[in-house]
Design goal:
The protein is α+β, with helices and mostly antiparallel strands and 386 residues long. It folds into 4 domains: 10-103, Orthogonal Bundle (DNA polymerase, domain 1), CATH 1.10.150; 107-151, DNA polymerase, domain 1 (Orthogonal Bundle); 165-320, Beta Polymerase, domain 2; 321-383, Beta Polymerase, domain 3, CATH 3.30.210. It has helices at 10-13, 29-44, 48-63, 82-94, 98-105, 107-116, 123-131, 137-142, 149-156, 158-161, 167-184, 194-197, 221-231, 277-285, 287-293, 319-327, 330-344, 367-374, and strands at residues 165-166, 189-192, 202-203, 206-211, 235-241, 263-272, 304-313, 346-348, 353-355, 360-361. The strands form 3 sheets. Strands 2-4-7-6-5 form a 5-stranded mixed beta sheet, sandwiched between helices. Strands 8-9-10 form a 3-stranded antiparallel beta sheet. Strands 1-3 form a two-stranded antiparallel ribbon. A hairpin with a 4-residue loop joins β9 (353-355) and β10. α2 packs antiparallel against α3 (48-63), α2 packs across α4 and α11 (167-184) runs parallel beside α14 (277-285). It is globular. The protein starts with 9 loop residues before the first helix and ends in a 12-residue tail after the last helix. Thymidine-5'-triphosphate binds next to α12, α16 and α17.
């Protein structure tokens, strides 16, 4: 039973995910998938604390550079609570965890996953519907509930939006976005953020951060981008929010607040089947030709699919913070902010870094500088898959 104690390398003993390099997909996918189910189930129950505990365990296992073969190898590792250890032990010994299997097949988990899988539907709304006995899309449609615009779009494009976006599709969307942004504001910069910047091969959406090297030129840009996308018939849905961020003498706002206040747009793009990055590039030079080429039948009987796209506009002075904040993963972000507060007395947001001891903002023009301010070793985007 008692194996030799394994000396964990320093980076494995690190208890914050932002202290570790976490590549994709990791060597323990059986374990991380199982813990992810339990985390998700807790989150869908509105139990944030419990969800976070499972996410931290999952993140730790993702960062290991080898496959765990037995429970003895877990000794000395941080982040793993009793509950997670029990689940991992089950999986290592039996190849399956009854708790995870029961969770996955529970009506509540299945219904909540289905309902929150609708764009525009959060945990609170899904919970209310589930309590009323709604467990399927058909039941929701006949329930007589009035849905807001986002939810209507979410229902309409449900199948497409729940089909993962491939790397190729993300590249095609990049070409579309770059074309539009450069036509409305020459010199503006478009950067792919989110999971694709972390090197993931698929995602639930495509995230872009947009800025301009001259501070102020980016003001009002989101509306011009949307107008142009709409005139080209590329948008199926969009909801735009204006920038409400102002630096204050009191510091970088509530440290717990994860919502930022950039000009941004949650949207659904219309991506034609034949829009490989090359084809999309050609389409912008010769729209007529592609319309003809795209006239072939795709899934669902139409020659296009719906893709979720997030567009965020940042002033250049906040760009490094915005990039760090919008690259993720969500756990990596949470952990970086938690490190900042607890270990450095700083508050980090997607806009700024505030030093509470010095009572001043710390400037940065690159992610490397932010890590340096925080006293963290730099972790490249592909290592942030916690
Ligand atoms: P997501 O697009 O939700 O996640 P992801 O790109 O990591 O993974 P997926 O493949 O499922 O799309 O979020 C990307 C980052 O954006 C995430 O680190 C958190 C950040 N973000 C904000 O900062 N504010 C917000 O309001 C939202 C929705 C996301
Ligand atoms: Mn427990
Ligand atoms: Mn994303
Ligand atoms: Mn997103």
């Amino acid at each position: 039973q008692q194996g030799d104690p394994v000396e964990a390398p320093a980076f494995l003993a690190a208890s914050y995910a932002c202290q570790r390099n976490t590549p994709q997909p990791g060597h323990n996918t059986l374990l991380t998938a199982a813990l992810s189910v339990l985390a998700e189930s807790a989150e869908l129950n509105g139990d944030e604390g419990r969800g976070l505990a499972f996410r931290r365990s999952e993140g730790l296992l993702r960062s290991l550079d080898r496959r765990v073969q037995g429970p003895a190898e877990l000794r000395g590792l941080p982040c793993l609570g009793d509950h997670s250890r029990r689940v991992i032990q089950d999986l290592l010994e039996n190849g399956v965890s009854s708790e995870v299997e029961e969770t996955k097949s529970s009506p509540r988990y299945k219904a909540m996953k289905l309902l929150t899988g609708i764009f525009g539907v959060g945990v609170k709304t899904a919970k209310r519907w589930f309590t009323e006995g709604i467990c399927s899309l058909a039941q929701l449609e006949t329930s007589g509930h009035s849905l807001n615009a986002a939810q209507q779009a979410g229902l309409k494009y449900y199948t497409d939006l729940n089909q993962p976006v491939s790397r190729e599709e993300a590249d095609a969307v990049s070409v579309m976005v770059e074309g539009v942004v450069h036509s409305v504001l020459p010199g503006a910069r478009v950067t792919l953020a989110g999971g694709f910047r972390r090197g993931k091969m698929s995602g639930h959406d495509v995230d872009f951060l947009i800025t301009h090297p001259d501070e102020g030129k980016e003001e009002g840009l989101i509306h011009k981008i949307i107008a142009c996308l709409e005139s080209r018939g590329l948008l199926l849905y969009q909801q735009t929010t204006r920038n409400t961020y102002r630096e204050s003498a009191k510091g970088a706002g509530r440290p717990s607040s994860s919502m930022d206040r950039f000009e941004r747009c949650f949207s659904i793009f219309k991506l034609t089947n034949d829009s490989s990055p090359e084809d999309t590039r050609r389409a912008q030079q010769d729209p007529e030709r592609v319309r003809v080429e795209a006239d072939q039948t795709g899934s669902g009987g139409r020659p296009w699919r719906a893709v979720r796209v997030d567009l965020v506009v940042s002033p250049i002075s906040q760009f490094a913070f915005a990039l760090l904040g919008w690259t993720g993963s969500k756990l990596f972000e949470r952990e970086t902010r938690r490190w900042a507060v607890r270990e450095r007395s700083m508050s980090l947001s997607s806009h700024a870094l505030y030093d509470r001891n010095q009572e001043r903002y710390l400037r940065a023009s690159s992610e490397e500088e932010i890590f340096a301010h925080l006293g963290l070793e730099y972790v490249s985007p592909t290592g942030r898959n916690a």
